[in-house]
Write a structure and sequence with these properties.
Blueprint: H1 8-33, E1 43-44, H2 50-53, E2 57-58, E3 81-91, E4 101-106, E5 110-118, E6 128-136, E7 142-148, H3 149-153, E8 159-163, E9 168-172, E10 177-185, E11 188-199, E12 207-217
Parallel strand pairs: 1-2
Antiparallel strand pairs: 3-12, 4-5, 5-6, 6-9, 7-8, 7-10, 10-11, 11-12
Amino acid sequence: MRPRLPSPAMVVALIALIVALSGTAVAAVTYAHNAGAVNGISAVRPNVSTRHAAGKLVATKRHGRDRGRVPAKYLAGVMRGTAQSLTSYVRTVDNTPGAPHRLLSVPGVGRMDTQCADVDPTPGTATTRTTVTFTATAPQGANVSRILGRDIEAGQRPNVFTAPHAQAVTILPSADGLFQVLLQAGQRSVLVVGAARTDSSPGPRAACLLWGTAFSVG
């Protein structure tokens, strides 16, 4: 028996079905390829290099203090820096120089430590002396510009010097109210503005109080 040829209407219907299915497949492949893209531009994670991120979107950070934010290294024309709060309340130990306490640490530049000593030999009575030192961690050392409250009052110029690597240098020799320090190593600069005072001194519960802010750029 000779098979019957499909009618012209059936041929047109089959062609339309094939075209429709092909279009759906192409659309599915295109969608899978561009999944997560915006206007056809794909996103990259926020820890890739700027070279790898060129021409792409950058995702915000998923964890940490900057969660939901785009890292500053991907933003042109924006000053990149951080700010740290300095707060230290240290009790004086009777008739001892006191242990150093970390006040500030800036990677690639150095650290600042404070010490609260008792300078009164009378047992049970402490008269405090607050000192602040800076130790450069940069191999080449760090440039330092320092001015204290009494220097400003006397109209003196800042004390400018180079702090050698791994050697503590004095920033604040004793509680003086105000101190301002500008540190620089490589491409990073740090401005520290702080104050220091004694608390309950002299007395059996004497202490040293320091507070301020450090602004780091670079």
